[in-house]
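User: Please predict the structure of the protein below. I'd like the answer in structure-token form so I can feed it into my own downstream comparison script.

Assistant: Understood. Taking the following sequence of 434 residues as input:
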Amino acid sequence: MTTTFAGGTVSTRPIGRYLRQLGIDTQYSLLGLPLAVLTLPLCIAGFAVGVSTTIIWIGLPILVGTLFMARGFALLERYRIGAVLRRPIPHPAYRSTAGKSFMGKLVSPLADGQAWLDLLHGLIRLVPSLFAFVVTVVWWAVALAGLATPFYDWALPHPPENVELAELLGFGDTTFARITLNVLVGLIFAATLCPVVRGAALVEALFARALLSGVGELRQQVADANAARTVAQEQRTAAVSAEAVALRKLERDIHDGPQQRLVRLAMDLGRAEQQFSTDPDAARATVAEAIAQTRETLDELRALSRGIAPPILVDRGLQAALTALAGRCTVPVDLDAPLGERLDPAVESAAYFVVAEALTNVAKHSQASEVQVSVQRIETGLVVTVADDGVGGASLAKGHGLAGLDDRVRATGGVLAVDSPEGDGTRLTAALPL
């Protein structure tokens, strides 16, 4: 919303926001004192009677009832201070009574620290509530009375005219001087009304928040920190496990492929060396065969190097690398990867290996006729989906081929899911955070 003046256009939205907050802070401060006046005697009476009669057991249910009453007032206060602090106040976790006996349920609130903090707030909330109430009423009263002076000054009795005041202010009419002075004071209080009332409301609201949710928020922060630490440890463990699996796979592939070919190459060259003196034609044939073995060994080494760090992924990005993967797969691949910009290298690497491992499994085990690969960027991350129409039966359990891939995804903070019913294809989905 805007307002047009001769000099231009001025937005009125900030003014409306300030006035709305002023109304919220005012009602909070004005209602706080009556609630404090109501809460204080009830909490004092319940606590005093409960403690004094606990020796004859009558006071125990009275004391518990007082704690529940204080909890009710605390719940109302948390709802009220949410508007002042401009954010919802979390409800703390009270001690659970589920599964306990009648006596356990009766005694449980007495061992709950937050219940006693609620009662403490009910006992001492009068101090900040009184402060906020007085400041709010005084500022509103002076601002309104000063600005409205011209409308009611004539109806008020006044002492004899003070000529010295008029001369001091440079006015010949003491009535005009008095009205002007009152209006100026009203303007000053009106100009400072928003920050002063806001400050008074915050004093009361922050005091209530410290007692009613401060401990709960601290516990939640500690719990969140512990959870984050646990997740970090799991990711580190998954990274180590994924690295170990990759190294074992690389070692096995080298042993079963290039190493065997190199052993055969050495034997062929040794045989050719012996044949040169007796049968040159056979030696040349053996050398030619050794050259062919060398080329095949180089091809296998290049394939293994692509599995470690594919150059196309580093140089041209994920989309080009996935296109190359789809082109090499023996099963027809329908690729949908509209990625317009480069991503974090760790995310690109994880996404690439998810697709590479999935296509390898499809080619080896699925008996599929088609596979669909989709890579979509969403607001929170990257979603990689590989679906085939094969025989299914894939699993993330340890001992299966996808277990190492699950570790790699979890190492980046992502999640891997597999839906693979027997005889109905496999759908692998990886969610990777950006």
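That's the full token string. The two ends are 37 Å apart (CA to CA).
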